[in-house]
UniProtKB/TrEMBL annotation:
GO terms for cellular component: cytoplasm. This is Failed axon connections homolog. Keywords: Membrane, Transmembrane, Transmembrane helix. The keyword Membrane applies.
Amino acid sequence: MTEISHWVWCAVGVVGFIVLVILVKFLFGAIQKLRSKQRLRKWETKTSGSETLIVHCPPWAKTLPSPSPFVMKVLTYLRIAGIPYELDHTDVFGGKGKTPWISVNGENIADSEFIIAFLTKKFGKNLKGNYSDEQLAVATAVRIMLDEHLFWGMALERFVFGSPDKMARVFHLPRLVVMILKRMIRGRAEGQGIGVHTESDIIEIMSKDIRTVSKILGNKKFILGDEPCSEDAGIFGQLSQFFWGLPNNPYEVLLNGECKNLGDYCLRFCWPYTLKNKRS
């Protein structure tokens, strides 16, 4: 009887612990949602009646403006389109838990694709040039390939395969945050599909993608010709991470050698302060 009681109490303890974990997770999520709503309301009020565009994103990294290809994408689009903006590095994550996000005239928009679509409509900046719909579709396909493949190669190289010391040369994160990100990125990369492969296989896949983009770019200044289109912002955003955002990464050799046209492509988008002098 005593032994049965012991196992009953053990079971009760386990169930109680599980319930506690679920409760804590629920409360944490509720608090995060509340804070997110308060943050959005604050910026809705703050920007109401103002056409000043605020871009919310993490602080600058050491070797490039942002370690996020999607932040680079939005900021590059704004520069190409000639849309003035101000930066906010305090409220980094928006309502969808994503960065970057923007605030303008009482509206908050998150996700780089939705941001660019919103800005294109609001400011009448249709960066299609004289390119045909077929050409623009090619540019979109290239950008999507980089978003779905190259992004995960970069994330895995930084947080799973690479050393914290190498990453610290670009941006510093607390060790606990790095550990959490490592587990999260590994899990999401496996869910995406690319994370189930070995490091050497992933490098081979990424290198093949880079070579493909290099062949599509050819001798052109931008992905479709002499003038950039809106998709160039996203393409540059991804490539910039391998050119400036991963010291001594396995793809750097490609961008400086066999696929040097992609390295030159990145340099055409150099920011006001010279990124090429910040390379290490």
